[in-house]
DNA sequence: GCAATAATCAACATTATGTTTATTATTATC
DNA sequence: GATAATAATAAACATAATGTTGATTATTGC
């Protein structure tokens, strides 16, 4: 997805800009953050920003996509290893929960972001795409409109739980959340037909 | 909440501005909508906008709050009528679903809005505040951290379902959605302790 | 070391914002 | 229907952010 070898200066600049934005999002709403704010915080020239991003929404979008790509990669790795037919747990959940825990600050500001692009939408879609097939196969469930509604319920519900997790200080351990998510998935799949 | 008698000109102006914004949100992302866009569409002077709202986020916020206030009022009315201890259904759901159906265009653009304030957050909070007490009493459930996680799951999950409902054309009838929501609430409450 | 290129700096035109003042049009109320 | 109150208009303004350009300096990969 990314160029394997970007110039060191580019890597440094992008990292500085992203860190600056994450800092600022902790301090004020995204909509009130300007390109000038970001470059001043990163101690870079304003023009430099435009060498890499078109506007503030572009850089935010790219931060979001990186996080979600990392999570998707964990799922893909897990898919190869796992025989889906026998186990009832989802092995990818543990590394994902640990990843979210490790990146709690950035995940929290993305998921709580009041004025921006659609991190939650993209996250829900990721869960939807990766889970619906697995669940359907496991529980021998059909593609009905009714079940589509329930999937929308479950997938956004899981994000609600993760959101709560990130908001509750001190945060529970990844293992605890994995347990709760698996439990809720088991219970909820009972509504599917 | 609102002044009982606003000048007719003010009522007209506010209505024109709100309709113009709703129209524009169907055409492009909220973040790209300017005050000029709104007043041009409403065929009003740009200065007039500032007589009533501070910026685009302010008017959006007020549209959101109106919708949610109307829903809250339905719940309040229902609370007075209902004896909570015996029934297992939630009578407010039907009028709420009908209200959402009647205002599907505006609700859809608020719930799908990619770049704005927090309609979904506020909506989730409304459900949370109004449902948690009822459910806790009904199922004799305690205030544990674990249950808080589940409430976050259920409340955002319901919004996921409503979102799906609004996206699916042609929309299902309010009665169908009420049935699904009640079913999911019954099933889900099984995870509470 | 050197060619390539990223970052800086200063300057610029463009656009949106938010405010002000004087003027016109509409309203509520008597 | 006349009138005082006030909402909407129009034009002008300062301010600030945006996005771009061209020349210069600094860093990088090889």
Gist of the model:
The structure is a homodimer of 193-residue chains. In chain A, 72% of the residues lie in helices and 0% in strands.
Radius of gyration of chain A: 19 Å
DSSP summary, beta strand count of chain A: 0
User: Helical content of chain A, roughly?
Assistant: over 70%
Low-confidence stretches of chain A: none
Structural class of chain A: mainly alpha
Number of helices of chain A: 9
User: In percent terms, what proportion of residues of chain A is strand?
Assistant: under 5%
Largest protein-protein interface: A-B, 37 and 37 residues
How would you describe this protein?
Two copies of one chain form a homodimer. Chain A is mainly alpha-helical and 193 residues long. Chain A has two domains: 1-53, Arc Repressor Mutant, subunit A (Orthogonal Bundle), CATH 1.10.10; 57-191. Chain A contains nine helices and no strands. The first copy, chain A, has helices at 8-27, 35-42, 46-52, 56-81, 93-102, 104-112, 119-138, 145-167, 174-188. The first copy, chain A, is elongated, with a radius of gyration of 19 Å. The interface between A and B is large, with 37 and 37 residues. The structure holds a DNA duplex (30 and 30 nucleotides).
